[in-house]
Amino acid sequence: MNADFVLLDGRVATMDAAGTEVAALAALGGRIVALGSSDAMREHIGPATRVLNAQGRRVIPGIVDSHAHPDSYAVRLRTWTLVSPDRVASRSELLATINRVCSALPPGRWGAFYRLNERASGGYPTLDELDSASAGHPVFILRTDGHLGLANRAAFAACGVAADAPDPPFGAFDRDPATRTFTGLVRETAAHVFLNAVHGADSEADIAEGMEMVQDECLRHGITSVANSLTPSKAIRAYQDMHRDRRWRMRMGIIASGRDEPLIPHLIGAGIRSGFGDEWLRLVGVEWCPDCSTSGRTAAYWEPYRGAAVPGEPVPNTGMLLHDRDDLTQRATAAHKAGLQVMIEGVGDRGIDFALDVMEAALAAHPVADHRMRVEHCCYVTPPILDRLKRGGFVDSSATGFMDELGEAYVANRGQDAMRHMWPHRSLIAAGIPAPGHSDFAVCRVNPFTAIGAMVTRRSQTGADLDAREAVTPHQALAAYTTLGAWAQREEHEKGSLEVGKLADLAVLDTDILGGDAAAIRDTRVVATVVGGVLRHGG
After folding, report:
1. Across residues 64-74, what is the average pLDDT?
2. Angle at 52 between CA 48 and CA 56, to 5 degrees
3. Lower CB density within 10 Å: C or N end of the chain?
């Protein structure tokens, strides 16, 4: 029987356990049926076979981004305005962008903006500056970390937040220390007051339509599989509609959101376990977010933040936690007993310790050997935390995307000496702790190669020193986005490496990221992306 897809003349890094490299492969029905030389694979070519000639380029398994937010990104691509540093380099540019967008809005519509990095764009605007730029519209600007935002006075009024409103549990409306009036900066659950107002009108159709753009962007960067962190019910419904209508061109994993209050109890009650679904759409697990943002100075650490405090920030500041330990332990234990893979976010060392306290309690209540519980982001891994991860068999689901884009802020907020234990992949590998990497997009950019490059060079995009003692090899960095990404969501038999029987998901690169200049990795471009033996980008 002829193959329906054949790749020829590549330098294929299969990422199998033996480190095998081949020149070609053949696939039938979306799965690999043979690997070997180009001459051998030509024997599988028939009249209807799709043939892709890699022309001597590096070929890798499709990238598995094991923690991102494509659902919210889908909506923001359609209706929000991007204000990342490559778009706005100064506060005056930011205010001009706000004014331009808001001046064109119909009466009563919100002006919504995302991925503000105040360190690279001239600092936070004042409340008066926001009001002046907003043309009378309510405005909300989401900081790049997704944990903080800026709101103008019209936004406070639209959400019914009075001048004397108390802070919500696990959040803060920042106030000027002298006048006690709002600064406009809102943290954690206070930011969700405004996010909920902006997103309230989003529909399943909005998410599905935006996902067409998200898929295009992922495929353009060689990503063939994404796990949607903190997926709410609305997005799950949209994704099922897309599956019914055969609109998936990449693979989607659902990590159900603990923020969507009835969702996880409903999954437990329905008897739905991790793994439910198919190769296109599958439930990976469940997640809660008790820890926050280092670049936004809210993540929980044992030692205070360094550098100048933002007006309204507590001094000294050791960050905040967003859940009660006993309550979260009860929730996580129930999910774990029901067969749902548990994931809890921890960023600072205090936040990671909190996540491990909860997961250790769940395991004590219901021991499981191969549980694959994950600490999401898991940035500041001190030696005692590394020992806890190792003893408990936990996964360090590492926010490697932060290294490149937010590394400079980490150095500024935690100090150069802290970089020794920030995303310490060399130490994690030496200890045998699985540490897949992820982008957390749209917190960071979709492109995985900038993060893979930072793992190898230990330099951020601005050149910040992230401590070269924790640098890894290009092969190890790629494994974090392929084999380990698949393993961390129990899909190692389906994806992550190019082997007979596995899905024919791969990317052809313009750069040899495994054998060339490490500094060039971040500039890698994807020549072609194949999902299930079908060319989905380039060629």
Report:
1. 97
2. 150
3. N
Q: Which of 400, 387, 415 is nearest to 449 (CA)?
A: 400
Q: How many residues does the chain have?
A: 539
- Give the CA count within 13 Å in the CB-facing half-sphere of 234: 18
Give the residue among 330, 326, 350 at the shortest CA–CA distance from 342: 330
| CA 384/CA 397 separation, integer angstroms | 17
Question: From CA 374, how far away is CA 488, in angstroms rounded?
Answer: 8
Taking 90 as the threshold, does the pLDDT of residue 197 lie above it? yes
Residue type, 51: V
Residue 130's closest CA among 183, 193, 190, 172? 183
> Closest Cα to residue 452, out of 466, 438, 463?
438
Q: What is the pTM of this model?
A: 0.93
Domain locations in the chain as residue ranges: 73-199
Residue 76: count other Cβ atoms within 10 Å of its Cβ: 22
Give residue 501's region: left, alpha or beta (phi > 0; psi -120 to 50): left
Mean pLDDT of 255-281: 97
CA nearest 414: which of 332, 350, 457, 367? 350
Share of the chain above pLDDT 90, in %: 94
Phi-psi region of 447 (alpha: psi -120 to 50; beta: other; left: phi over 0): beta
* Gap between the Cα atoms of 137 and 523, Å rounded: 39
* Second-level CATH architecture of 73-199: Roll (3.10)
DSSP 424-492: -HHHHHHHT----B---TTSS-S-SHHHHHHHHH-B-TT--B--GGG---HHHHHHHTTHHHHHTTT-T
* Per-residue confidence band for 539, with pLDDT thresholds at 50, 70 and 90: confident
Question: Which pLDDT tens digit goes with each residue over 12-50?
Answer: 999 999 999 999 999 999 999 999 999 999 999 999 999
Question: What is the token pair recorded at 441?
Answer: 């997009």
Provide the pairing of β-strand 395-398 with 374-377: parallel
Instruction: Name the token pair of 236.
Output: 């799950």
Taking a C-beta distance cutoff of 8 angstroms, is the pair 322, 170 a contact? yes
What would the pLDDT profile of 336-389 be if each residue is shown by its tens digit? 999 999 999 999 999 999 999 999 999 999 999 999 999 999 999 999 999 999
If one counts every other C-beta atom within 10 angstroms of the C-beta of residue 375, the result is: 30
pLDDT, averaged across the chain: 96
| Cα dist from 49 to 46, 249, 286, 499, whole Å | 5, 19, 40, 20
Strand partners, 150: 141, 185
Q: What six digits make up the tokens of 5?
A: 């897809």
Indicate the DSSP class of residue 106: P
Query: CA-based angle 435:441:444, to the nearest 5?
Result: 90
